[in-house]
Design a protein that fits this description.
Blueprint lengths: L2 E12 L2 E12 L3 E5 L6 H8 L7 E6 L2 E2 L5 H6 L2 E4 L11 H8 L6 E6 L5 E6 L1 H15 L1 H5 L10 H13 L5 E5 L7 H16 L3 E6 L2 H7 L2 E6 L2 E7 H4 L3 H7 L6
Parallel strand pairs: 3-10, 3-11, 6-9, 9-10
Antiparallel strand pairs: 1-2, 1-4, 4-5, 7-8, 11-12
Helix pairs in contact: 3-6
């Protein structure tokens, strides 16, 4: 498939500090692309620049070959680039269901590709209300616990459940590209495995995902392609199936564990 998202020679600075230095990344439609690296490597800055929250100093960000560099965040979101942020940012005072509804705020009626029971896709035209219902059903199928607790205050959920809610809220916007920032952060190993299994399912539904993670091994198990950032530069890239066998990457450089 063609690339849906591209970063070309992207440079970002915070004052005198160069956070990203000529970063080139390609994300193929329908794939999971991982962006790995240590703290301070520039991973979150990359996602925040794609989302328009951080402004690029130079370079280009292309969505379906159209430039979106330095556009305001809500316009980028309206084009289908949706981020599930680091730290989850659950809205306190709202229920689980209300948090999910917030994710659908900017939705408009449109044609979408729906997976049929035989595994093939068909294009269906939906109104906004139909699309919201369709997305609720999809999110609740992925995360049954959220349906069970839809009337519960979101801030009373466990850490793992809040992460599910953050991902579900992003999916409510029908993203063309889903940006996931450290989805395993602060979670127990068993919950991490569950979250990564769901991310894999999201991809199998035809979604495109760019995931930022420090957990190298678990991420490479589900990714199609991966880039490694080191001090703002891409130091390594390749098919995830090859990088997962690079002991220097998994064990020494990123400190991942094969478990």
């Amino acid at each position: 498939m063609a690339n849906i998202l591209e970063l070309r020679d992207l440079c970002v600075s915070y004052g005198a500090i160069d956070a990203l230095k000529s970063v080139n990344i390609s994300v193929e439609e329908g794939s999971i692309v991982a962006l790995l690296g240590a703290n301070g490597a520039g991973k979150t800055t990359t996602l925040r620049t794609i989302s328009g929250v951080v402004k690029a100093k130079s370079g280009q960000i292309l969505l379906n070959n159209e430039p979106i560099t330095n556009r305001v965040p809500y316009k980028i979101a309206s084009l289908g680039v949706i981020q599930s942020p680091e730290g989850r940012l659950i809205l306190n005072g709202l229920t689980v269901e209300e948090n999910l509804k917030v994710g659908a705020y900017g939705l408009k009626g449109k044609e979408i590709r729906v997976k049929k029971s035989d595994g093939n896709y068909e294009t269906v035209k939906m109104s906004k209300s139909q699309l919201i219902k369709y997305n609720f059903d999809k999110v609740y199928k992925l995360f049954p616990i959220l349906q069970e607790r839809k009337k519960q205050q979101a801030n009373t959920l466990s850490g793992g459940e809040q992460q599910m809610l953050a991902i579900g809220r992003a999916l409510m916007a029908s993203p063309k590209v889903l940006l996931l920032d450290e989805p395993s952060l602060g979670l127990a190993p068993l919950i991490i495995r569950d979250i990564f299994e769901v991310i894999k399912q999201i991809k199998e539904e035809g979604n495109t995902i760019l995931i930022v993670e420090q957990n190298a091994y678990q991420t490479l198990k589900i990714a199609d392609y991966a880039y490694v950032l080191e001090l703002g530069k891409i130091s390594m890239q390749g098919p995830a199936s090859e990088l997962i066998h690079d002991e220097r990457l998994v064990e020494a450089y990123l400190g991942g564990k094969k478990d």
